[in-house]
Amino acid sequence: MSRTYLFFILAILFMISACGDQEDKHQGHDEGSYYTCPMHPSVKSATPGSCPVCNMSLIKVEAQKTSHEDHKGNTITLNLEQQRLAGIAFDKVDYRSILPSTAMLGTVSIDQERVSAISSRVSGRIEKLHFTTSGQQIRKGDPIYEIYSEQLTADQKELLALLKQKEMNGSSDFIDKLIVASRKKLQLWGLTTAQLMALENRKEVQETVTFYAPSSGYVSNVRIKEGAYINEGTQLFELADLNAVWIEVQVYKGDEVNGIQNFKVYSEGSPNAVFNGKLVYLNPTVERNKKVQLLRLSVENKDQLLVPGMIVNVNSAQSSNRILSVPKSAVLLEKMKTVWVRLDETTFEQRMVETGIENANYIEILSGVKEGEEIVKSGAYLVSSEFILKKGTTKRHAH
Known about the structure:
single chain; alpha+beta; conserved putative lor/sdh protein from methanococcus maripaludis s2 fold; Elongation Factor Tu (Ef-tu), domain 3; 4 domains; 6-stranded antiparallel β-barrel; 6 helices
């Protein structure tokens, strides 16, 4: 009987000890590390194992004191290495111009008044073209083609013969005038001063002569091929100067643009840039079968951010206003609209925001953040996922 009683007492002590261990484990789960499923953060366990929902292996989460514990609200701490790996980028809450929904679409095109032609000054055979396709940029002084010309060969020989005669017989007014005239003729054919000096120093005729670009621009048309024989005056290239471009807009009959001379142009490729457009042409008639008028604007493009063929947004200058906004990528569209605000170098706070109008790049902020605050514009979903992983879903949006 005493053995049975002793066994019963030992069993009770074992159960109490097991409960105490289990309680310690749960305390460790609440205060220290624990295991959770990366796909189902609500699953938590004090020991390793598999997720009961998707059977994935649980991962260990270390609980540690972080800088956000001193901040109120939904905050999380990510060190600089974590931010780098997540590709997190920032932008500031600022006042920007956002076009209303009535903005018109336009297409960037070449300003035909800024197109120039490069023509051949001599007859001959094109031995090499340095630019062969449209869209290539040519800078003033770049070699553009090489040509074999019988005329150039003969004139080079003439200059060398005159120089040799002067060397043998000495200088005279007559021979000096002939040499000057011979040099001038080669310059009129298109040879540069450097090419003339090289010819006189080398004392040897250059059968294939290189010609250089007289101005800068983009090749809009190539009219010749290598090996072609050309005449004097044959057009070789068309160059477009993109320091100013046209914006062509198809205006529907109901759009009110009569009397408006100045417009604002916005490009998705350069969201922070605003271009000033001046009306240069408005077709007085409606295009057949289209019910639209053609509107043409001239826009300064010194930084060459606008490229022919690009689609842009156009609106009248008087309707352009600046409003508090953030990049659209910063706003998370979940149960409610939220953004992540950087409080310090490693601390982020989740804020609910109220939004207004938007365009392709930015969205208006009516409440929730202030001008100058720094928000996460790239990687906001990763920050939110990390917050759920560490805090669970029950603490989200608890404002």
